[in-house]
Every structure is written in structure tokens, then in C-alpha cells.
User: Fold these one by one.
Assistant:
Number 1:
Amino acid sequence: QVQLVESGGGLVQPGGSLRLSCAASGIIGSINIMGWYRQAPGKARELVATMTSGGGTNYALSVKGRFTISRDNAKNTVSLQMNSLNPGDTAVYYCYLHSFLSTADYWGQGTQVTVSS
């Protein structure tokens, strides 16, 4: 079993910054993908950023240049530094892990990010 626990969400003004963190526990496997998705009200869940255990990254075009994903393979954690936030970034952000050991997807409980003046 794999569990993901997010932290760091909150309310921030436009132009501000937040840092989200996620810790994974369980039998994950050394080859995996960790990252972040988000879902705004009335919209589908969408990719924000992912990072493979080998260091490759993938960003949504809407966040590239503003958000930075990082991970610590030894600690099984992933973080998302979000800068220059705008109201369009308001959503519930979900930590994500895909294990190539189990071929399963895992999701955190979600953390709310609200960008508003």
C-alpha cells in the first residue's frame, strides 16, 4: 500500500508564492513518477507538473516558468514551488504517484490553493 500526504496549501494574493509538499510512504518501487494535478470547480483534473525518479520533468504550459517541481528520492517526497500565482491557479491540488512496481496510480487527499485579493 502507498499513502500520499500533502501540505502547504492556503490563501495567497495574486503575484504571491506557495510551496506544496507531499510525502509518500509504503512499497513504492525505485522507478516511479511523482507530481501534482489540480482541479478547479466545474473543470476536469489536469496535470500541473510531474517528475520521474530519474529526474525528468513535465509541466503544464500554463505553469511552466512559474512553478518548479522537485523531489527527494531518498525521502520519497515531492514539492511544488509556485511563484507568480494568479487567480487561474485556484484549485484543489493533488499529489500523484505512479509506481512501475505495482503499475498503480496513487492520489493524495488534496490541498486547497486559493489565489485572491
Number 2:
Amino acid sequence: QVQLVESGGGLVQPGGSLRLSCAASGTDFSAYDLAWYRQGQGKQREMVASISTDYYTDYMSSVKGRFFIFRDDPRNTVFLRMNDLRPEDTAVYYCYGHHRQSGVQSWGRGTQVTVST
């Protein structure tokens, strides 16, 4: 099972950009489907973007064209590039991994993103 650690969150003004990173320790990273979720205050956790083991990507509609997920398997890292950030993007962002063969799931502890003036 991989351990996932997010970084890169912070405070940014509307229209700004951030890049989140999720570093994995453990083995078999390339066999994990990966995703970024977020949870705003008082809201349910929602999937923002996902990337499969064969690099197929999917995005929630409100971030399409602004957010981009990509993975670097040799470095055991998945990234989320976020552009044109809006106040409604404010949330704790979580990294998630699902091992295709075993079904094992892993979550990171999250990183706070705040979009505000």
C-alpha cells in the first residue's frame, strides 16, 4: 500500500495558479489509478480530476480547461496544476490512489487551498 503526502497548497488571489504535488512512498505506484478530491467547508468531498494507469484523464465540469492532472511514475508523484483559481475552489485537496489489481485504496491527509483577496 502506498502512503500519499500532498504539498503545494496555500493562499492565492483569484485568477492565480498553484501546483499541488502528491508524493507516494511504497511500491507499484504505476499500478494505481490516481485522483485529486476536494472538500470545502460544510460540503461533501468531490472528485476534481483523475488519471488512470494508462494516462486517461477526467475532470469535474467546473474545472475543465483550468485544472490539469498529470503523473510522473518514475518519481512516484502525481500533480494537479490549477489555473485561473476562483474563490469557490477553496477547499482541502486530497490525493487518492486505487490499486487496480488488489483494490487497495489510499488517501493523503490533504492540503489547504484558499482563494481569496
Number 3:
Amino acid sequence: QVQLVESGGGLVQPGGSLRLSCAASGLTFSTYTMGWFRQAPGQERIFVAGIIQTGGITYYEDSVKGRFTISRDNAKNTVYLQMNNLKPEDTAVYYCAVQKNVVGITTTPTEYDYWGQGTQVTVSS
């Protein structure tokens, strides 16, 4: 049974930083591309960042480029999202997900098989 558990969310002031973690179990983690998505109230779930199996290639949604960094530790079955210079518009529930067997990194939620429960990130003064 695949399980993804996110942690690290919270309340932070604009300009602050948070590091999200997603611990995976029940799958051969190193063979899957991983993604982070976010969903604000009343809005669709959107892609934030993705990372291939080896960690050698990453991809970001335009609004987070230069501020967020995705990384992974295959020995710990964990993917991370370092978020710097946070803005109020980054407020959302953040989810990690396992990509289906699709070449490259896809931004489409339906191309992801398994999802965590989400962690709330609130950016407010």
C-alpha cells in the first residue's frame, strides 16, 4: 500500500521560508518521478514542481521559479520542497504525488497516481 505523508507546513510571514517534506512508503521510491502541487480554496489543484527519479532534472511552475527548490533523498524515500521568499499568494494546501509511468515531468494532476493528505501553508503578516 502506497503512502505519502507530507509535513513542514505552517504559518509564515511574507518573505519567510518553509521546507516541506514528503515521506513515501509502499513503493520503490527511486523509480518514480515525484511532484508537488498546491490547491488554494475554491481553486484547482496546480503543479508547483517536479523531479525525476535521479534528481538530475527538475521543473517548476513559473511563479515559483527562483524561490522554490525541489529535491529528493532516495535513501530516505523522501522528497522536499524548499520555499523561500514566500508570498501571500503561495497560501494553499500543498500535496506531494507520485507520477505515473510517463516520460519526463508532467504538470497534469491526472498523470499522478498517488497523493499525500496535504499540508497547509499560510503566508500572512
Number 4:
Amino acid sequence: QVQLVESGGGAVQTGGSLRLSCAASGRTFSRSTMGWFRQALGKEREFVAAVSWNNGNTYYTDSVKGRFTISRDNAKNTVYLQMNSLKPEDTAVYYCAVRTYYSPRYYDTNEYAYWGQGTQVTVSS
């Protein structure tokens, strides 16, 4: 089993930055993918970014490219999401998740088996 704990959320003004962390415990997978998703109030959960655990390949949704950076520290079993130039539309609960097998559908919520509890990010003007 895998447990995921997110941290680093908070309230910032437009243009500010936050760094989210997700610490994993339990069994890890050499060919797994870890992703960040977000869900705004009244909206469906959407893909934000993902990283391949073993080779570090990264993927981003178009709306965060150039502003967000996903990275991982294999030794610490931790994935990070550095968020810069935050906008009000980034306001959401952010979740990290793990997919335990390879798939080209890195953006597909349904393919991730383990989820953290979420951390709130609020961006105000």
C-alpha cells in the first residue's frame, strides 16, 4: 500500500508562489507515475502535472506551462510542485496521486490508484 501526504498549500495574492510537497510512504514502484491534480469548487478534478518516478519525464497541462514545475526526490520518496506567477484560476484543492503502471494517458484521473488528502491553494487579487 501507498500513503500520500500533501503539504505546502495556503493563501497567496496574484503573482505569488507556493511550493507543494507530497511525501509517499509504503511500497514504491519503479515504473510508476506521480501526478498532481486539482479540483476547484463545483468543478471536475483536472490534471495539472505528472512525473515518471524512475526516469523523471514530466508532463504539464497547457495552463500551467512556464509557471509550474514538478520534480521528485527518489531518495526521499517525495514529489514537489513549484508554483510561480499564481493566478486566481489556480485556486483549488490540490491532490497528489500515484499510478502503478505505465500508460500514455498520464492525464487520466481514473488511472491513478492512490490519492492524498489534498491541500488547499487560494489565490486572491
